[in-house]
Structure formats: structure tokens, C-alpha cells
Amino acid sequence: MTVPVAPLGATVAVNVTGSPYRYKAFISLCYREGIHNSKVASNPARQVRHKREGNGRLRFLTRREYDSLCEVIRERFPEHIAEFIVSVNTGMRLSEQYSLTWGQVHFDRRTIDLTKTKNGSARTVHLNADSIAALESIRSKGQKTSDPVFPCEGSRFDTRSWFSPCLFDAGIEGYVWHSNRHTFCSWLAMAGATIKEIQELAGHKTITMSARYSHLSPEHRLSVIDRIAAAASAETNGTKS
Fold this sequence. Notes:
Elements (H helix, E strand, L loop, with lengths): L19 H17 L26 H14 L4 H10 L3 H5 L6 E2 L4 E4 L8 E4 L2 H10 L21 H11 L8 H12 L4 H8 L4 H5 L6 H23 L1
Antiparallel strand pairs: 1-2, 2-3
């Protein structure tokens, strides 16, 4: 992306290809550099809200996009790679993940106990090998059970300051932190998980929320194909009789 420099007060037409999210990420990056160099005092781009995704299309990462994004995060913000990996591989909501303490993490049982969730009910998060490795990488000796797993600056859980520029560098559009939950659920569906299993693992209050991912299930697709074969077989038998 090349932005021409013009005299103060001049109007310049800039032809930049990309979605509104990429524009916002680029502008936000410029303001962060300005803050770092003491040129500006605040970043107004952070006040621009992302438009909520409709249920018609749930954006999730392909394996290639995931690997590409991990590579960018490791290069630019290595201190945040563990929280991204844990987010994608557990499907925890942002508030659940960033309010987590080490006392809730059980490496022996490979679980996390969530006591405060969006639905108001406690649930257990199961950890796969990638999640365990990520958590082990940030675990230190003498860790207190009351210590936060992912310390945050101030009282806000804000991932945009580092996640948005990484998405930009990886060339990933239409994706936000909450989309990690969609990636988690989508990957479960593609691995053959049932709707009920997705509901339990993601902590969805209703099974309708989990049903949005059913079309990605190989069993779902095969069952539809099998119906065609069954119908053809029935017609053949009917003709013979």
C-alpha cells in the first residue's frame, strides 16, 4: 500500500484496494505510530466499532489462514501468541479468557473451570495438546492461583491494539477476535462433532446457536447424499415389484 504525500491542505485521491476493516486497521496503525513518536495524543480509530456479523455467514479461519496469522503474531507480538492459540482451540469468549486465573486451570485433568460465563452458568473447558502447550509456555514457577493467566492493561480486555495489525499483515479480512469462536466451532463440525457436542464445548445456551455449523459436518453432508441413494434404491425396488 502506497500513500502519496501532499502539501498541507491539498486533496489527494488514494486508490487503495481493501475492505473497510483493512482501512481501519491501517489508520489505527498510523495513529499508534504517532502516539509512539509523541506526534498525537490518542487514537480515534479505536472508537470505530466493528459491524456485527450476521448469522448468514460466520467467518472462520482456514488452516492456512491460521498458520499465516500465527506466523505474523510470533514475528510482531510474540507475547500474545499463546492467548490467540488458546482462544481458537478452546472457543472461550473474550471476557471468559481474560478473567481467567491460574487456579481455574487444571493441567492434570486438561480442563479449565469457568465460573462466570455469559450464560450465567458454570462450565468446563477441555484443553487439547495445542492449548496445553500454549499455556505451559507462559506458566512460571511460583505462580499464584489468584494470578491472571492473561494479564491485561487496565480494566479493559482489548485485543485490537495488536490483533488488528496482525490481521492486516496476514491479509485476512472480515475477521475479529470473536470470530475465533466461529473458527473453534467450525473446526469441530468439520472434524465430525455433533451439534450437541458443539453446544457443550462452546457453551451455547441453545442448540440453535450450534446448529449454524451443522452444514460443515462431513456426517451431515454424507447423510444428505445417502438419502439420494436410498430414494433411488426405493424407486428401483418399486419398479421391480
